[in-house]
């Protein structure tokens, strides 16, 4: 019998396939006294050998498909796995205390990891996380737990999970994964953003899904309307196959707009650009007709590795994007913290991480990290239309401090006779209400604004967008949001600057008339959303958009605004 669920449409398209549930692994075990010491040692070595085979296979695949830099973390793990001191310590513990391999391994790994974590040398501190990661892998193999390797799936599946981390999605093999559905998350969750980057259909926030589906079930994920059908009937299957075909036909028609400008019927031009995370994403941006990159999330260069990227590694990535794009490339400086952690950066645990130590707040403390990145970006600016953008600015003092450091870096490069674009534009994200309210002041000391609506909505409505109990309060159509965004655009224009938007609202075609009507100059979004937004822009005049924007501002509630804009 089929079952139907509804969630949030997070990435368009229709996927039909078999369920694969990604479950959190239970690593609980009982500490036992053993008599067969040699037998326990043999179990340990079997688990070590299996772990080695798994890590080598992952390293080879990542090296082949994602490059040597991404594979370095697995090389480091292989070195830990082969450490004779670690292995002999576990063996001695089994022999001396006559305990099972699981208990001996767990205690030894924690002992080694703590030792490294307490060292003064930052590099050695970073080894603690490697040791714990490798320890978990060996423990899983001792317990007979088969981890799902998303890079090495044997058949086509649709992933079902509580949530997917960025590192989960980074491993996804697009040839095998047809789509996602998750229990938590909204349209702006990282799962949703990554799904759009990968151009995979996704539905998120399906609260009951893990209670209902089983591995092997047939499932339909409708990323257009947010519907989930589990074990569909023949009629439902036929209906959704037709819908998938219609979606592909519309996608093909929209693809014909690829080389046309984002221009209204009466000739008003705006820039339609893409949000990306790595140089690999440029291909999707170009295929979908992006005129540039409005948000290069540089933090992805820092994730899924065991140490900071060097200046040369960053320079190579920024230069590659600048050279491939025949248009502007806005690079956001490191936006780590909140829900984006680095295993090698010992960030404090916080009660409210989204309101805590993150993004520019870290960079202004860790000037060494910040300067390395700014040097790499400036050097890349010699190879294209690169612009710098600071995230999480809430006060003028932060903007000035960041610009002072930037000037120091420019002076250093000049002294070293290294080329860069001396007229490179420097802007900031507007994602905090305080920044929106003083946009007129900030505009005097920036070249541009880019409105980060994912956080601006969250902070303005005081709503954690990942909290399923209050997700209904996270309202992109909230009248307060519409007014704040208009205020920011007007403040930028008053100083002769341009104003863009890189939050997910820019890719919501229902909001296109409003944003166009208030004068937004640049729309940056997941590449896959560009064709739909371009189609909307090319089918209206600026005057029509202004009238719609004016009318939208007269409503009192988010529901009224959404109903009005959804019916245009």
From TrEMBL:
Active site residues according to the UniProt entry: 190, 502
Major localisation: cytoplasm
Record's catalysed reaction(s): L-histidyl-[protein] + phosphoenolpyruvate = N(pros)-phospho-L-histidyl-[protein] + pyruvate
Residue intervals of the PEP-utilising enzyme C-terminal domain: 251-540
Database matches in InterPro entries: PEP-util_enz_mobile_dom, PEP-utilizing_PTS_enzyme, PEP_util_AS, PEP_util_C, Phosphohistidine_dom_sf, PTS_EI, PTS_EI-like, PTS_EIN
Entry's Gene Ontology molecular function annotations: kinase activity; metal ion binding; phosphoenolpyruvate-protein phosphotransferase activity
Alphabetical keyword list: Coiled coil, Cytoplasm, Kinase, Magnesium, Metal-binding, Phosphotransferase system, Pyruvate, Sugar transport, Transferase, Transport
GO biological process: phosphoenolpyruvate-dependent sugar phosphotransferase system
Pfam families xrefs: PEP-utilisers_N (PF05524), PEP-utilizers (PF00391), PEP-utilizers_C (PF02896)
Location within or outside the cell: Cytoplasm
Cofactor(s) for this UniProt protein: Mg(2+)
Binding site for Mg(2+): 431, 455
Gene Ontology CC annotations of this record: cytoplasm
PEP-utilising enzyme mobile domain sequence ranges: 154-226
Coiled coil: 34-107, 230-260, 392-423
Known EC number: 2.7.3.9
Residue ranges annotated for the Phosphotransferase system enzyme I N-terminal domain, each copy included: 7-127
Regions that span the bilayer: none
PANTHER family reported in the protein's UniProt record: PHOSPHOENOLPYRUVATE-PROTEIN PHOSPHOTRANSFERASE (PTHR46244)
Primary role: General (non sugar-specific) component of the phosphoenolpyruvate-dependent sugar phosphotransferase system (sugar PTS). This major carbohydrate active-transport system catalyzes the phosphorylation of incoming sugar substrates concomitantly with their translocation across the cell membrane. Enzyme I transfers the phosphoryl group from phosphoenolpyruvate (PEP) to the phosphoryl carrier protein (HPr).
Family: Belongs to the PEP-utilizing enzyme family.
Name of the featured protein: Phosphoenolpyruvate-protein phosphotransferase
